[in-house]
């Protein structure tokens, strides 16, 4: 579903990604872990071109998105993104947050979009919050709305950028549960996370990133129980 | 006492000043409306990804803010005599250009203050740059523009008094005409100030309420 070849990304003189190769199969859940500053968020943001790519090639579902001729908006509409800080639109209600994309990008009618959005809200457990404004929601609820907003575009891939890092600990569970349900339904997911429990339980594969490269990748059980790379060992010994 | 007030400029200048105030408000409102359009373009222009648009906007803002409005209006009135646009049009153009530069900074600041994540969230659901600006950034930024725009209204309203130099019959000019005939300078100027305050104080009060309500 996603193929990344020799991806480089620099901010000025600072090279953040130093040649990443990765593959994500359809229906696979890949978790990206690593210390802060390792480039894992940048890597994720390159996958829907929120960062322009310095060099390398990214292919999503057969489309070479790094090709300058490609329609970037169409690509983005097929790749859902969930942010650490939710980034809900505060001037719109929950339902409007969800329907904005389908109405403006897919050009479907408001009613149709609403009809499609309500089951999504139920799915994330917020069926009663359709007309609430984001400010009245807890962090966990906001993040679940953000997930529903992405799903409304019927993406082929969902990217999660530390989706639970800004949440109070007691709110993390609900968000992870929604993500787990999604994974079980067969959504292709790339998750940058510090939730090692989630990576172990839900992830099909784990990438360990450090200093702008993928240091180690493999089955979650192997990475967590028997890491090969000394950097992986060091990182895991600090956090587990 | 009452007889004195009724017989002096405190009362008798009111009809003249009222006429002047109507013109003052007309110039201010029309000028600010046009200035907002100009300022929105210039403000967004300063955030443009094209350096030529950024440069034009920046030059406009800096030149306008860096020169006195009195010089600007004289320049427009006498400098454009080739097209002889008259004093009222000159006044409106002057307010438009002058307020436009300040409003450009208000617009730029407000748009700039919207969290980058809003833009990213808009783009990541597939909205174009324009749609993101229109449906997500602008509505939030506009809310933040309201208090400084109200402030600009008060500033521009007072700036119109400078147009008395080109004989625009705004409120200060009407006051001058009145005291030149009656020599009640002090009384007339008090009334001119009262006329300004009748507009500015309620505006401030409304603004403070709006600010509280908008929570910005």
From TrEMBL, chain A:
SMART domains this protein is in? AAA
Q: What is this protein called?
A: Amino acid ABC transporter ATP-binding protein
GO terms assigned for molecular function? ABC-type amino acid transporter activity; ATP binding; ATP hydrolysis activity
What Pfam families does the entry give? ABC_tran
Q: Which domain of life is it from?
A: Bacteria
Tell me the organism: Filobacillus milosensis
List residues of the ABC transporter domain: 2-236
Q: What keywords tag this UniProt record? A: ATP-binding, Nucleotide-binding, Transport
Automatic annotation (TrEMBL), chain B:
Q: Pfam families, alphabetically?
A: BPD_transp_1
A GO molecular function assigned to this protein is: transmembrane transporter activity
Per the record, the domain of life is: Bacteria
The keyword Transmembrane helix appears for this protein: yes
Give the UniProt subcellular location, in the record's own words. Answer: Cell membrane
The UniProt record lists the ABC transmembrane type-1 domain at 21-207
What stretches pass through the bilayer?
Answer: 23-44, 185-207
Arranged from A to Z, the UniProt key words for this protein are: Amino-acid transport, Cell membrane, Membrane, Transmembrane, Transmembrane helix, Transport
Instruction: Look up the record and give one Gene Ontology term from the biological process aspect.
Output: amino acid transport
**CDD domains per the UniProt record, alphabetical:** TM_PBP2
Q: Which InterPro entries does the UniProt entry name for this protein?
A: AA_ABC_transptr_permease_3TM, ArtM/GltK/GlnP/TcyL/YhdX-like, MetI-like, MetI-like_sf
Q: Which cellular component appears as one GO term in the record? A: ATP-binding cassette (ABC) transporter complex
Membrane association type: Multi-pass membrane protein
Q: Which family does it belong to?
A: Belongs to the binding-protein-dependent transport system permease family. HisMQ subfamily.
Q: Which PANTHER family match?
A: GLUTAMINE TRANSPORT SYSTEM PERMEASE PROTEIN GLNP, MEMBRANE COMPONENT OF AMINO ACID ABC TRANSPORTER
The protein, known as: Amino acid ABC transporter permease
What organism is this sequence from? Filobacillus milosensis
What lineage does UniProt assign to this protein's organism? Bacteria, Bacillati, Bacillota, Bacilli, Bacillales
């Amino acid at each position: 579903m996603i193929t990344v070849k020799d991806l480089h990304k620099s901010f000025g003189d600072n090279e953040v990604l130093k040649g990443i190769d990765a593959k994500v199969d359809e229906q696979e859940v890949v978790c990206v872990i690593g210390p802060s500053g390792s480039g894992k968020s940048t890597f994720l943001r390159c996958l829907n071109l929120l960062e322009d790519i310095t060099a390398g090639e990214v292919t999503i579902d057969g489309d070479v998105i790094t090709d300058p001729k490609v329609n970037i908006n169409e690509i983005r509409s097929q790749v859902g993104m969930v942010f650490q800080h939710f980034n809900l639109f505060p001037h719109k209600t929950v339902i409007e947050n969800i329907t904005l994309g389908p109405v403006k990008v897919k050009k479907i009618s408001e009613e149709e979009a609403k009809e499609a959005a309500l089951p999504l809200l139920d799915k994330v457990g917020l069926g009663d919050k359709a007309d609430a404004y984001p400010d009245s929601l807890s962090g966990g609820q906001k993040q679940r709305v953000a997930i529903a907003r992405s799903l409304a575009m019927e993406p082929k891939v969902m990217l999660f950028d530390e989706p639970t890092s800004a949440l109070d600990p007691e709110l993390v569970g609900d968000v992870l549960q929604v993500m787990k349900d999604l994974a079980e339904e067969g959504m292709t997911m790339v998750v940058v996370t510090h939730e090692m429990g989630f990576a172990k339980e839900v992830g099909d594969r784990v990438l360990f990133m450090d200093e702008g490269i993928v240091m180690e990748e493999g089955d979650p059980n192997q990475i967590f129980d028997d890491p090969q790379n000394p950097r992986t060992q060091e990182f895991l010994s600090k956090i587990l | 006492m009452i007889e004195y007030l009724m017989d002096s400029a405190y009362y008798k200048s009111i009809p003249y000043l009222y006429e002047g105030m109507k013109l003052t408000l007309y110039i201010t409102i029309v000028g600010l409306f046009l200035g907002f359009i100009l300022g929105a373009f210039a403000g967004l222009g300063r955030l443009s990804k094209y350096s030529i648009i950024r440069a034009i906007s920046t030059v406009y803002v800096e030149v306008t803010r860096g020169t006195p409005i009195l010089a600007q209006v004289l320049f427009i009135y006498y400098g454009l005599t080739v097209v002889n646009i008259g004093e009222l049009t000159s006044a409106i153009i002057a307010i438009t250009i002058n307020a436009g530069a300040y409003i450009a900074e208000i617009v730029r600041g407000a748009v700039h203050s919207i969290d980058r994540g809003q833009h990213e969230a808009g783009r990541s659901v597939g909205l174009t740059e324009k749609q993101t600006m229109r449906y997500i950034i602008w509505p939030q930024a506009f809310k933040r523009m309201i208090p400084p725009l109200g402030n600009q209204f008060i500033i521009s309203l007072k700036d119109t008094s400078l147009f008395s130099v080109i004989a625009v019959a705004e409120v200060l000019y009407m006051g001058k005409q009145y005291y030149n005939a009656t020599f009640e300078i002090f009384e007339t100027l008090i009334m001119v100030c009262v006329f300004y305050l009748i507009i500015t104080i309620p505006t401030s009060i409304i603004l403070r309420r709006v600010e509280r309500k908008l929570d910005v």
